[in-house]
Write a structure and sequence with these properties.
Length: 51
């Protein structure tokens, strides 16, 4: 199983998306775009206050 490229969490109605690609200096690629899109959808479903 591959390591996650984004970490998603919500604290006090604030959504945080953390990019986890230090070996690539957090550059954007297709996998990251897809995972970030999933994170946004998750936050929309949870009706998070702030991102």
């Amino acid at each position: 199983m591959a390591s996650p490229v984004v970490l998603c969490e919500v604290k006090d109605r604030i959504a945080y998306i953390t990019i986890i690609r230090p070996d690539k200096r957090n550059t954007l690629n297709t996998e990251l775009y897809v995972e970030a899109g999933k994170a946004w959808q998750l936050f929309e479903q949870k009706e998070v206050g702030y991102v």
